[in-house]
Specification:
Helix content: over 70%
Shape: elongated
Number of helices: 16
Structural class: mainly alpha
Number of domains: 2
Radius of gyration: 23 Å
Number of strands: 0
Oligomer: single chain
Distance between the termini: 50 Å
């Protein structure tokens, strides 16, 4: 790689670095921010208020942690219902677009590299591209997947922007409509308008999931999708077999500090109880295991000297063949780290 290529590679990481910085800042400054705070900060002029809300949508899309329903509610309280829906739809378009292009610019080549190295990742990307509109619609309509993280992934995977945006908008419009309607009637939570909008929110979510399920079953490749899910599950299990070798490399005193940190993060993520996308979701449930985990493993292996990695893999394979188990107390630091993180989250949210 020449100097120009290295400079371009670093330049591609700038948007992602900015996004990570905004995530860290939001974790400290956005905590405790309420809809009332947004309303107090909003300008009195309707056009300026709309611009202010769109700016908040843009910041939300790059900060991940800020809840988008709070912006829906604020729109419903600031504007008449038609204007609130128009501003909300424009905000969703902004919210979907920015992280998509960050992923497309900063990590597009990385997804291609993973696809070349891992056949199952390539199969997943091909399946996604055959159903690009439905895929984008489905990940939005189920509602509980992290919106901005999914946008980063879909941008990095090369999903066509038009299909991505149309499917994403269609999947998020039911939530926009009902939550905005709740915001317009939030002054009286016992009013029929508020209660009906709350009930419709639940019904629309259930109906959207049912419609997506029916549409998926009617398509001729429904059975291959289930086969893909089984194949991805098997691939995820195979990937985790490299974790003992990473753990041995982590303990090796000759492993560089940077590689030790990466190995610790990879082992900690693989053993963590946190699943970014629940495994029961067909195909999507193994995205984190077949995209994020291979990425962490590949990044870590590149940082470990080849002779140490080869030795660690040989020792791990030898231990597995001989039936040896890693001593339980080697996992204590990982457990303690996750307990500490859980305590910090509880303290930040409830204490």
């Amino acid at each position: 790689m020449n100097r120009r290529d290295r400079a371009l590679a670093l330049l591609r990481l700038v948007p992602l670095a900015v996004m990570l910085g905004l995530i860290a800042a939001a974790a400290f400054f956005v905590r405790g921010l309420s809809v009332e705070d947004l309303l107090r900060a909003s300008p009195q002029n309707p056009w300026l208020a709309a611009g202010f809300l769109l700016l908040l949508y843009a910041l939300k899309s790059l900060s991940v942690v800020f809840p988008i329903p709070a912006l829906y509610l604020a729109g419903g309280m600031l504007f008449p219902l038609p204007a609130a829906l128009a501003v909300g739809a424009a905000g969703i378009a902004v919210c979907l677009s920015l992280p998509y292009w960050v992923g497309r610019w900063s990590a597009g080549s990385f997804s291609s590299a993973l696809a070349r190295r891992y056949p199952k990742v390539r199969a997943l990307l091909e399946l996604q591209r055959k159903n690009d509109f439905f895929f984008s619609f489905f990940v939005r309509v189920i509602g509980f997947l992290p919106c901005d993280v999914v946008s980063l992934y879909l941008g990095s995977s090369g999903l066509p922007f038009g299909s991505y945006l149309a499917g994403g908008l269609l999947g998020m419009l039911p939530g926009l409509f009902t939550v905005t309607l709740m915001g317009a009637s939030i002054q009286d939570p016992s009013s029929p308008q508020f209660l009906i909008s709350a009930a419709v929110t639940v019904l629309l979510s259930a109906a959207s999931l049912f419609a997506a399920w029916r549409l998926r079953r009617r398509q001729p490749d429904a059975h291959p999708v289930r086969a893909r899910s089984a194949a991805l599950k098997d691939r995820a299990k195979k990937l985790k077999r490299d974790i003992p070798a990473l753990f041995l490399a982590l303990k090796d005193p000759k492993t560089p500090i940077r590689a030790k940190i990466l190995a610790g993060v990879t082992v900690g993520y693989a053993l963590s109880p946190i699943d970014l996308i629940p495994d029961f979701i067909p195909v999507l449930g193994y995205l984190d295991d077949v995209i994020l985990l291979p990425a962490l493993i590949a990044l870590t292996v590149r940082a470990i000297p080849k002779e140490i990695w080869d030795q660690s893999r040989a020792l791990a394979a030898e231990g597995g063949q001989n039936g040896k188990r890693t001593k339980w107390y080697f996992g204590v630091p990982v457990v303690l780290i996750w307990l500490a993180l859980a305590w910090l989250i509880v303290k930040a949210v409830w204490l």
